[in-house]
């Protein structure tokens, strides 16, 4: 197993060497091929590789690789958001989201996060904030279209161009154009209003290193409402070469509820926590929203592959 793990890490290092020499990370045949190979190499979860215990050299490579992945992901979203926003005026860009290569992954991730939210909250959220929404706010779109038809989504991004592209995607949709709001700001500068959201989603690439990630979480803890839900993206096993890891120790001031590690082609792990000091029975400011209704579609535990349940999901009662 050690030899096999060393071989996999060597493959990742080789791919990193090739990617780091690229002149541009915008979508192209070579860029798409290399990142496709990287994702395929990092997908297996049946490994005991722990990136936090590797050599400093490998850790530095991983940190740089995550930044390269984030840059390439941004270019990919810009590329397809521009294409969709350029469709004829009589076409709704949201009807053509399947041209985005990872759209099906977002459908699966959105369903998973909705199930987790339903499991840990008694009421449908009235307002959700998504921090780091980017030029293709697919999580907000998927949740709004398929799971939360009466919820308003406030999307925060530091990049004004990203928000312009994202706004263009939903502007022709009679429903989402009214329920998707975009804010151009650094989340660390956002203070007033964060306590108005029933749930806050933090994108995987907000906080590209541990220090920045913890700083963002600490800011949200300071300004979110007691009892509000925090949903974060993390990574597990080899997938941690692609995205930052969120540890339970990073969530001071929150009750950690669940960490879920997918074993399919959904790359991100999902972490869900609740701001201490509130109740799951009420929304922000003590208000009660509509109740989540029982659903025959797959609840989060029904999604679990029983033979992998121990690996995939960890549940917690509280954080000391």
Automatic annotation (TrEMBL):
Keyword Nucleus: no
Reactions mediated catalytically: 3 S-adenosyl-L-methionine = nicotianamine + 3 S-methyl-5'-thioadenosine + 3 H(+)
A GO term, aspect molecular function: nicotianamine synthase activity
Alphabetically ordered keywords of this record: S-adenosyl-L-methionine, Transferase
Pfam families, A to Z: NAS
EC number: 2.5.1.43
Enzyme class: transferase
Domain of life: Eukaryota
One biological process term in Gene Ontology: nicotianamine biosynthetic process
Keyword Metal-binding on entry: no
Task of the protein: Synthesizes nicotianamine, a polyamine which serves as a sensor for the physiological iron status within the plant, and/or might be involved in the transport of iron.
Family of the protein in this entry: Belongs to the nicotianamine synthase (NAS)-like family.
Designated name of the protein: Nicotianamine synthase
